[in-house]
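Journal club side-thread
Mid-discussion, someone asked how the predicted structure for our own chain would compare to the paper's figures. Pasting it here so we can look after the session.
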Amino acid sequence: MEFSAKDDLDVPIEDAFDLLSEYDVFERMAMRRGIEVQRHDRGESVKVGSAWTVDFEWRGKDIRMDAKVTRFDRPEYIELESIMPGLDVDVKFELVALSRKRTRLHLHLDVRAKTLPMRLLVQSLKLARGNIDKKLQERVKTQCRNLEMRHAQKLATGTAG
């Protein structure tokens, strides 16, 4: 099952890619929500093969997810592969330059169930598709505003690209 959302941000494509690649920022956001994140290649810049183990609670169960970067084409494309018990999720971020200072972010999610319980979960997602699409679009919009704010802060401190 596929989901997608997009939004535009007032950030040049190279800077948007750099901000989107600051995985330590996203790791800290996850940890603040009680999600345990462990990066396997700590200290190195993110590249194809960078990997994480993510532990979180979902519907009262402890879930372990292994995620790795499978494609990293600066400044247009990042792809992650996430594997959980019974479920695989590919996450693709595509950036398109609309102008020198404006970028469109496309988020694509491809969810594949491998077990019967997960197939039932995916079937229930299909039934709630309208609500899920709306929530996903809202989250992408919120993250784009967040990227714009981080870019403005970097410009103000003189650390932007």
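Post-session note: Residues 2-157 form a domain with the Alpha-D-Glucose-1,6-Bisphosphate; Chain A, domain 4 fold (CATH 3.30.530.20).
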